[in-house]
Design brief:
Elements (H helix, E strand, L loop, with lengths): L13 E3 L2 E3 L2 H11 L19 H8 L1
Antiparallel strand pairs: 1-2
């Protein structure tokens, strides 16, 4: 996938909505244009490593 901002054409470094954007301003413009929900990087679930999962560790010990 190209890392080009679909709004302004600049090189993008923020991944959101399946594209790369150069700034949060371009993300907001994209959301407004295509009537999408707002992008929230804090809202995305990041998977943990297997050794950080308590359930996995407890099941190994018992």
């Amino acid at each position: 996938m190209k890392k080009t901002d679909p709004i302004c054409g600049m090189k993008g470094h923020i991944k959101a909505h399946g594209h790369y954007f150069c700034s949060m301003n371009c993300i907001r413009k994209y959301e407004k244009k295509y009537k999408l929900k707002k992008y929230c990087p804090e809202c995305t679930i990041k998977p943990r490593k297997w050794y950080q999962e308590r359930l996995y560790i407890v099941s190994i010990i018992t």
